[in-house]
Design brief:
Low-confidence stretches: 1-29, 39-51
Strand content: 15-25%
Order of helices and strands: HEEHEEHHHHHEEHEEEHEEEEEEEEHH
Shape: elongated
Strand order of the largest sheet: 14-16-17-12-11-15
Number of strands: 17
Number of helices: 11
Structural class: alpha+beta
Oligomer: single chain
Distance between the termini: 147 Å
Helix content: 25-40%
Radius of gyration: 44 Å
Mean pLDDT: 82
Length: 465
């Protein structure tokens, strides 16, 4: 269970002075402070009073990134190559997570500290422990012995593992990064930048197991030689509610380093500060960056699972015009937008009519979410109601009584009636015409006969031969 609490009361002047002056700084490489440093801002300060401007930072190099949009919210010398101390272990963790199952058990090859106060889990040679617990020891307690255990067992040797670390950095285009060990000891060729560390942390936080692991205040590791209790050296995780990661580091050459992350009101920010003079400034700069990011971005709810969207709210059913089917997104969608920018636009791609049968939840289209001129998400559009099956007789009835069909049938019937009637009238006129001609001829003959009787006598026809 994650152990986080809000800081109660102000820090004592002695503790603040110690942190500011760097007193108590570990003398050995990768020996991070075992006593938590003071939180720069007490918990009684209102969370709503977010920083609108970045104050003066002590970090030699820094960056702040919003992962959803990919915006670099703030940067100062983000690509400066510097020693990074135990934040090297982020790449160690990534390689192990990509290659090994969490339940696999490794046997410790043994580790001999180069300095008396190195950060250790205190594994014994030959002790057996799961990969998951070794990673917790690596990420929370920053155990150098856990790093060597994971490296040797994953790649066969520490040297082979370091070579794999550099290959992976090249694949991820971490152009400011090179490794010479899996721990973060000060050594030539072991360096990175604020930009690369933030990019690596964002990739790791996409893994739920990692995100949960670095958000823990403490953990108990179970090995064959006993239980190891470890505390997260990133004391902000335990003292500030919205901080949820990621990894600290410290060596004489690197100074104090912190790759941090925080989430508030649905917005996550990832920061990196390198070359800090002490724990107090490391924490203060990290909190200032995170709060600055929260003040500039907000979470945007675009649609819920049950939302019926715009003009594609309902689709018709073919051959059953009276039925309407609700169409909804397959999942809710929210995103992060910069304050003052227009919200994302939604475009629905859906058919006007559906042919059944279709069950509830059948994908029939999609919803495109566009932000800054680019499609940032495509969510399936599914049926919220069952689409009924329409039988063949029902289809015929629907076809016949469809308004367009009825009009066509009426027009066709009228045309047929008119055509038949015209043919009937045409036949009657033909018969009557012939009879009329005969009657006219008969009347004309009679008239001529009557005229011949009073007229001159016609010559007689010659007799036939």
């Amino acid at each position: 269970m994650t152990v986080r609490g809000r800081a109660a009361g102000a820090c004592t002047l002695l503790a603040i002075a110690t942190a500011l002056t760097g007193a108590g700084r570990a003398q050995a490489q990768t020996a991070e402070p075992t006593t938590p440093g003071p939180v720069p801002e007490v918990a009684s300060a209102p969370e709503a009073a977010v920083a609108r401007d970045i104050p003066a930072l002590d970090a030699a190099s820094t960056v702040l990134v919003e992962p959803v949009t990919g915006d670099v919210v703030y940067r100062r010398r983000p690509h400066q190559r510097r020693p990074i101390a135990s934040t090297t272990k982020l790449m160690t963790a990534l390689l192990v997570l990509e290659r090994e199952p969490l339940g696999r058990v490794f046997t410790s090859p043994g580790y001999r500290p180069a300095f008396p106060d190195e950060s250790l889990v205190h594994l014994r040679a030959g002790e057996r422990m799961t990969v998951a617990d070794l990673l917790r020891g690596l990420l929370l307690a920053s155990g150098n012995d856990a790093a060597v255990d994971l490296a040797a067992n994953t790649a066969g040797s520490v040297a082979s593992f370091v070579a794999a670390m550099n290959r992976r950095a090249g694949q991820l285009r971490l152009t400011d990064t090179h490794y010479s060990n899996p721990i973060g000891l000060d050594a030539p060729g072991n360096y990175s930048s604020a930009s690369d560390l933030a990019a690596l942390a964002i990739r790791l936080r996409q893994r739920p197991w990692f995100a949960h692991a670095v958000d823990r205040g403490e953990a108990r590791l179970h090995g064959s030689a006993g239980t190891h209790a470890v505390v997260n050296r990133n004391d902000l995780v335990r003292q500030v509610a919205f901080v949820n990661g990621v990894k600290t580091g410290h060596t004489p050459a690197a100074g104090y380093v912190l790759v941090g992350s925080g989430t508030r009101n649905g917005v996550t920010m990832v920061s990196a500060v390198l070359g800090e003079p002490g724990v107090f400034s490391r924490n203060a700069d990290t909190l200032a960056l995170l709060r600055y990011g929260f003040s500039r971005y907000r979470s945007q709810h675009v649609f819920a699972r049950a939302d019926v969207l715009a003009r594609a709210a309902r689709a018709g059913v073919r051959y059953r015009e009276q039925d309407k089917i609700r169409l909804v997104p397959a999942r809710p969608f929210s995103t992060v937008v910069r304050r003052g920018e227009p919200p994302p636009a939604v475009t629905v791609h859906a058919p006007a009519k559906l042919t059944g049968p279709l069950p509830v939840g059948r994908r029939v289209g999609r919803v495109d979410v566009r932000y800054r001129g680019h499609v940032i998400a495509r969510v399936p559009l599914v049926t919220a109601d069952r689409v009924p099956e329409v039988t063949l007789p029902a289809r015929l009835v629907t076809f016949v009584f469809r308004p367009g069909t009825l009009v066509g049938l009426v027009v066709l019937a009228i045309f047929i009636v008119l055509l038949f009637g015209r043919r009937q009238r045409g036949g009657g006129q033909g018969t009557g015409g012939r009879a009329g001609v005969a009657r006219d001829h008969h009347r004309h003959t009679q008239r001529r006969d009557r005229q011949d009787a009073g007229g001159p006598e016609l010559p007689a026809r010659p007799p036939p031969p």
